[in-house]
Write a structure and sequence with these properties.
The protein has helices at 90-97, 113-124, 129-143, 152-163, 169-174, 180-191, 195-212, 219-225, 231-242, 246-249, 255-261; strands spanning 2-7, 17-34, 40-45, 51-52, 58-59, 63-66, 73-88. Strands 1, 2, 3, 4, 5, 6 and 7 form a 7-stranded antiparallel β-sheet that branches. It has a domain at 2-147: Jelly Rolls (Sandwich). It is globular, with a radius of gyration of 18 Å. The chain is an alpha+beta fold. Residues 151-252 form the HTH araC/xylS-type domain.
Length: 267
Amino acid sequence: MIQIEIHKEVIQIDWLVHQFESYRFQDAAIEDKFFPRPYVSLIFHFKSPALLADVEKVKLDPYFVAPIIPQAFNLEFKGQIDTFAVTCKATVFSRLFKIDMFPHLKRSIALPAAMFLPLWEEMAILESTEARISHFSKFIDSFQDQSYVLDAVDILYDKILERGPQVPLKEIFQECPASKSTLLRKFLKRTGVSPKTLVRIVRLNNIWTKISSGHPVSYPEMVYHGNYYDQSHFINDFSTIIGETPGNFFNRNLQNVKYFSGISSSI
C-alpha cells in the first residue's frame, strides 16, 4: 500500500511553510529521481528511513533538513515507511533556526537534537497527518512568538520564486534593500545555492509543474515558460540539472517522480 498526502490549502504558518507532505508505505518499494525544488524540507522518518540510491545506498537519519540541491539524485523508499515532510522557505528556515545552509556535499544537514529530537518523539506517536501538522504548527508558534519580519535576503528569495525566470537578476537585486555583494554572501549562507542557480531550479519547476498537471507541452512551450534563450539552452540546462534529456525524461513513467516532488498525492 502506498499512501501519500499533500497539504497546502490552509497553512497557518505560511510565512515559513510552503506545504506539508506525508508518506506511508507498507511493504512497498519505489525508486526514482528527486526533482530539485526551490525549497528546503524538514524530514521526519518515524519508521524505515529513505535511502539515497545514486552509487551506493545511504540510509538517511530519522530527522534532518534536506537542502536545496543543484542536481537531481535517486531516492528510494522501501519497507515500512511513515515519513512526515515540512517544505519550507529556505531563507526563513535558516534564519529562524540559525542553520548554516552553505553548500554541502551531503544531501542532508543535521538538526540540533536538543530541539528536534523531542519534536520527533512527540509527532511519532500521532497517527494522523492533520495531528502532526497541528503539533508542528504549535511548535513553531511557541518558538516564534511574534510576527516574522522579512529581511533583504528573504525579499530576494521571494522575488526569485515569484519572478526569477521572467525578470533579469540585476533588476531583482535593485529591488532589495542591501548591496549586491552583501546579498550574494548572505544568500549563499541562507539557501546553500547562488541566486542564479535558484533561478535555474525555479525555471525547471515551473515547467515540471505545468506538465505534471496534465497539460501536453511542446519544446517551444517549455522554452517559453522557462524564458530560455532558445531550445538548445533549455535542453542543456535540463540535462545538467536532471541528468536526463527532456525527451527521455518526459516520455517515461513519472508517477514516482511526482510523488517525490510533492506535487502528486495517492489519494
